[in-house]
Amino acid sequence: MTREIVVGAAQLGPIEKEHTRRDVVDRMLALLHRAHGMGCDLVVYPELALTSFFPRWYMEDQAEIDAYFEPAMPGNETQPLFDEAKRLGLGFSFGYAELAEADGETHRFNTSILVDKAGTIVGKYRKIHLPGHAENEPYREFQHLEKRYFEVGDLGFGVWPALGGNIGMCICNDRRWPETYRVMGLQNVEMVLCGYNTPVHNPPAPEMDNLSNFHNHLVMQSGAYQNGTWVIGVAKCGPEAGVPMIGQSAIIAPSGEIVAQATSLDDELIVAACDLDRCAPYKSTVFNFAAHRRPEHYGLIVERTGAEPPGSGG
Ligand code: CDV
Fold first, then answer.
1. Taking 70 as the threshold, does the pLDDT of residue 309 lie above it?
2. Residue 59 CA, ligand 1 centroid: distance in Å
3. pLDDT for position 312
4. Of these residues, 40, 170, 172, 194, which one is catalytic?
5. 124 catalytic, yes or no?
6. Where are any strands of DSSP class E within 32-130?
7. How far is the CA of 307 from the centre of ligand 1 (A)?
8. In the chain, what are the domains?
9. Is the pTM of this model over 0.90?
């Protein structure tokens, strides 16, 4: 018997400032229903799925900023998604801006959750690789202020037993870093869920703009193959607030091959039956970590030269 998870990658098109949570949840429910009709077990939505990608705007007023955050999950607006997914027997995952209270202090994270078929949140991840900058940079056509609005995630890259497999999460920029997949690979991950908001244009490095789609797939396909895992990459895409963002959401097999890919820049569901047993041949041969990986010989402890790499980030 195969260990199969039928996955729906639920790409979202643009969400504008004036769209309410209710508007967005209605769109997510429409994709959920389509996924149910196609026999899905799990529906994966993008990073910061509930609102427009607000780090593109410089804001100083904390109340204005906090209007993009969720103080509770589920909250009033997201409860219908939890209820309907549970009624239909579907697991799901999505990203949101999390307002968390701990030890009398307020924290803000770029977060994603994994919800099982019973409607229970079984996994939470807080984005670690926050791209962009913390201060207004007026030279940019649009800002990327994740470093202003979020703290670095404090939960590590977890892997959870769920839906019959080992499932991990990362968020957008995390997918560009090999450590992301490897840390989960070392925990025997079989499926990595990754939502993203990626503008076509990168203000500090415009010469890379025409490679945006290529780099998106390059990193996820490499991460899948090098760790023998499925990777589900899901975009929020299209011209949002006038900023074009890439789509090409993809379901990627442990071979590194793309088995399903979105073709629009709008709300779209792509579906694939993901056999988790396709991970084992990679994990037990080419990427058998115990047999072949030699971290003790990698020379990780090096004397610092004092030279810092050029540039301050993207
Ligand atoms: N949301 C993101 O993390 N976006 C980055 C952009 C800024 C490059 C990404 O890596 O896609």
1. no
2. 19
3. 47
4. 172
5. no
6. 42-44, 91-102, 105-115, 121-126
7. 26
8. 4-288 (3.60.110.10)
9. yes
